[in-house]
Write a structure and sequence with these properties.
Layout lengths: L7 H26 L9 H20 L10 H42 L1
Length: about 120
């Protein structure tokens, strides 16, 4: 099962993803920057993540035994280093953001007590 590169369905799929990503990026930004606690993840964001998950399932189903030669070691090591750097940076930024929010909450509580 293969679709030619020149087939229009690929163009429509990319355009669909472009419009989905516009809405989900806006919803994700609002979700992250909102101060409201206990909020739910927006619907469009869930739909985008579900579509990505389904595309990966389809990809894994139809590409079995397609790549029989293993990757060269330098390619594997390069990707490993990239993922490690991204992982460490993500954890660092999450900890930094959590500390900032904790500090803001403490300052807010001190202001409320002094009022």
């Amino acid at each position: 099962m293969c679709i030619r590169d020149s087939h229009n369905i690929l163009l429509y799929r990319v355009l669909l993803w472009a419009f989905i990503s516009l809405v989900s990026t806006r919803e994700y930004y609002e979700y992250i920057t909102s101060d409201f606690d206990g909020r739910r993840i927006p619907a469009q964001l869930w739909i985008a993540h579900l579509c990505i998950f389904i595309e990966y399932i389809i990809l894994f189903k139809f590409t079995q035994n397609e790549f029989v030669k293993p990757f060269p070691n330098y390619v594997s090591y390069t990707w490993l280093v990239i993922f490690i750097i991204l992982g460490v940076a993500t954890v660092f930024l999450l900890i930094k953001d959590a500390r900032r929010k904790l500090k803001e909450r403490k300052q807010k509580q001190i202001k409320e007590k002094s009022s």
